[in-house]
Design brief:
Layout: H1 5-33, H2 37-54, H3 56-61, H4 70-92, H5 99-138, H6 143-149, H7 151-160, H8 164-188
Length: about 190
Amino acid sequence: MFKSVLFKNIIPFIFWYFSFIGLAIIVDLILHLLDLKWIGRSLGYIGTIVLILSFVYSLRKRKIIEYATPKTFLEIHEYLAWIGSVLLVIHAGTHFNAIIPWLATLTLIIVVAFGIIGKFVLKEANSTLSDLKKDLQSKGLDKVEIQKKLFFDSIMVENMKKWRAVHLPISFIFLILSLIHIISILLFSV
């Protein structure tokens, strides 16, 4: 059966990803129903600290830190960023009372999405595309016919390869919005 990159890799990712966001919002709603709002607030502090720790990878990448391999720090970055992001999405929950925190949450969700695309989805999509090419070659199709059949999938994979072009600038925007949010909380909460 001919299963394109869209149906094999992209749609399951979208479903899984939005399930994660929905689950975080449900956890926040449960905390509110149980009158445990303080846990959500605490998760904001913890999530921020965990995310800050995840950026040690950037220090290793720029050779400010010399020990261990960049791959080790990348794996640490991925896990800590994921955990910190989950905590921050639970912290953000369903609060509609301030625009800056919501913009920060939205940028966080985009950063995580493109990080996951770079880590998992692109690798799987490349593999799927390669398997599809081999399958079509084994059926005797020539190069032009294969390119026509896989045109949409090829364009999708090529565009996914540009994930860093979104991941890094949106990470910076997230950082700025988060700092504004944190500073305003420190200044205006009594």
